[in-house]
Structures are given as C-alpha cells and as structure tokens.
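User: Some background: our group keeps a shared notebook of sequences we're curious about, and every so often someone picks one and asks for a predicted structure to add to the entry. Today it's my turn. The entry only has the sequence so far, pasted here. Could you supply the structure so I can complete it?
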Amino acid sequence: MAMVEGSVHDSAYKGDLEHVRINLDRDSTWISKQDNNERLLLHWAAVGGHVPIVTLLLEKGSPVDPTDDFGATPLILAASAGKEDVVNLLIKHHANVNAKNQQGHSALQLAASKGWRSIIQLLLAAKADVNIKDSRGATALHRAASQGRTPIVNILIAVPGIDLSPADIDGNTPLHLACEEDRRDDALELVQRGASLSIKNKEEKTPMDLASPGLGKQLRECSEQ
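Assistant: Of course. Here's the predicted structure to add to the notebook entry:
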C-alpha cells in the first residue's frame, strides 16, 4: 500500500513503531524528510515520548539536533512536553542541552515553566546553563519564581554559579516577579539565598515596591536575620 506523504510523521508521533520501521526500510530518506512544520520524524517521536522510535531513528542516523520552523530541537520539544525518558535518551546521544528556539527558549527554561523536576535535574546534570536567557532576558529562575513553582526554584538556586538576581528586558529579577505574583515561599527563599531587594526595574521599582504589605514585612525580617 502506498504511504501518504506525512503519514509517517503521524506514526512517529502516535508511537506506531512498525509503520515507521517499514517506511524506513522502503525508503531510507524518510530519516531526513521534513513535514510542513520542517519537523523530522525525530521531532514527532520525541514530543510523543516514544523511546523505541527515537532509538530506531537515532540508530538509522537521524541528526540529534535538527530544528523545526520555530527553531525547536527534539530535546526542546521533549523537555517541554515532559517526556523524561526521551530527554534522557537524547542527552545520552549528545543532544545540545543549551539549544534555543526562535524565542530564545531552552529546554531548561521550558521544563521550568512546566514544573518538570526530573527533567530539570537531568538537564542540569548534563551541564545545561542555569543562567541561559531567552530573547526577553528571562532565565529559568524567572519562570519558576513567577509561577510559584517552589520545588523548581529550590533546585535552581542550589546550582553553583547561579545568578540569583538577573534582570530581564523590563529590568525585573526573579524576586521582582515572585513579589508581584505574591509567591511568598519563593520570594523568601530567594532573599534567604541572597537575592537583592534593592535592584530597580525599568519602572524604578524594587521587589519591595511590588510586594504586598505582609510579604514586604516578611522579606524585611528575613533580610535582617
């Protein structure tokens, strides 16, 4: 039966190993064929979380870091989708852990946004840059702190060499964002670790200016200890 163009990409996403294998045996160029999103089979297998298909594709010679029309690599897609086993496999095949998509988002930043703790730990163990910034100057810590993902904040701030007070394009540090969103646990943890309470953003506001009265009181007490 003739295969419809694109159907093999669908099979890679859905986890149909045999369909992918049969088509690769018939036509080895499927390994590098792009769909309308400029994605290879590896992109779809990765975002679908299908380790057997990812393994097959890598064994057949698929590049490990191809980019789609948005600049995303399979590792970026897998990390964002929470596909831990695929992330681990791609790392073992030397995927670039610091690759960025067109908005400058890395696998670490997207995993931090989604709260994927185990994936973050895998990426950090593989030497992902904890201070990497996207096109708006935000780091993984910005993302985690603004969303109140306390377990992620705790993982990130324990990484040697992390910048606790990086400023994004608006001059906001992770502490600014935590205070603005009233993420109390995260704000207090950042201050305890040494994040600055005095940095002003582009609106000339410090984290204390953005904190609620109750949080502001706690932060002052914390900083004085």
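Suggested note for the entry: The two ends are 73 Å apart (CA to CA). The CA atoms of residues 46 and 132 lie 23 Å apart.
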